[in-house]
Design a protein that fits this description.
- The N and C termini lie close together (9 Å).
- A hairpin with a 4-residue loop joins strand 3 and strand 4.
- 49% of the residues lie in helices and 17% in strands.
- It has 235 residues and is of the alpha/beta class.
- The strands form 2 sheets. A 5-stranded parallel β-sheet has the order 2-6-1-7-8. A 3-stranded antiparallel β-sheet has the order 3-4-5, with helices on one face.
- Helix 1 crosses helix 9 and helix 7 packs across helix 8.
- It has a single domain, classed as P-loop containing nucleotide triphosphate hydrolases (Rossmann fold), CATH 3.40.50.300.
Length: 235
């Protein structure tokens, strides 16, 4: 019997989805997929192709570049992180830039891009044993995933997390600018026509504004153990 499951973690920008997903994947020895990094990767490619340098018609000229796009996630044991590769190039550091952060919401609204990345994401989960985080994983990518988590947190805490991350990579930006960007991302994510960010009835909500990683993991593994126990009892 395949004891592996699919764990989907959706939620707001900078709500700690990736941090939690990474820790879960390490403990379970599951594959970790950061779908936000995939959208950032496409955004980086779009910047390189110059689609933001002219009018929106240029978006249609960009779509053909998606035909043979390839993503790989490779664990970098030296620095304990999972790197994302786009068409063979490690783009882990570049996709966290302020320029990419400001433009990714626009890219993530384009139907052709969402359709292409959703297909790739579904292929990642064919054999289960995967932890995937994003905005619509439990609703669109893996609607039958065994565990669906929805992450949230206060604007202030989420803004500080993003501000701290940007400071680490040398971006010169104020906390207020970051906060404004987070609010903008929330509006874009929840109001877009295709696959908007939304907490569905079968999600387990975690507000980690004041919740430590240890407590989050304790809760998650209680849920995982319950799911696996139920699977065995059914069999």
């Amino acid at each position: 019997m395949n004891d592996k499951i699919i764990i989907s973690i959706d939620g707001y920008s900078s709500s700690g989805k990736s941090s939690l997903a990474k820790e879960i994947s390490k403990k379970l020895k599951y594959k970790y997929i950061d779908t936000g990094a995939m959208y950032r990767g496409v955004t980086l490619l779009a910047i390189r192709k110059g689609i933001f340098n002219s009018d929106l018609w240029n978006v249609q000229n960009f779509i053909p570049f998606l035909k043979n796009i390839n993503f790989k996630f490779i664990c970098n044991n030296k620095i304990d992180q999972t790197d994302i590769f786009l068409n063979g190039e490690n783009i882990q550091s570049e996709i966290r830039s302020l320029d990419v952060t400001k433009k990714v919401s626009f890219i993530s609204q384009i139907p052709e891009i969402r359709e292409k990345l959703t297909l790739i994401q579904k292929n990642f989960g064919e054999k289960k044993g995967i932890v995937m985080d994003g905005r619509d994983i439990g609703s669109s990518v893996f609607p039958k995933s065994e565990l669906k988590i929805f992450m949230k947190g206060s604007i202030e805490v989420r803004s500080y997390r993003r501000y701290r991350d940007l400071q680490k990579i040398g971006e010169q930006i104020s906390y207020e600018e970051v906060r404004t960007n987070i609010i903008h991302r929330d509006i874009m994510d929840t109001s877009r026509t295709i696959s908007p960010l939304k907490k569905h009835i079968d999600y387990i909500e975690i507000d980690n504004t004041f919740l430590s990683m240890e407590k989050q993991l304790n809760l998650i593994f209680q849920l995982i153990n319950k799911i696996k126990k139920n699977k065995h009892s059914i069999v």
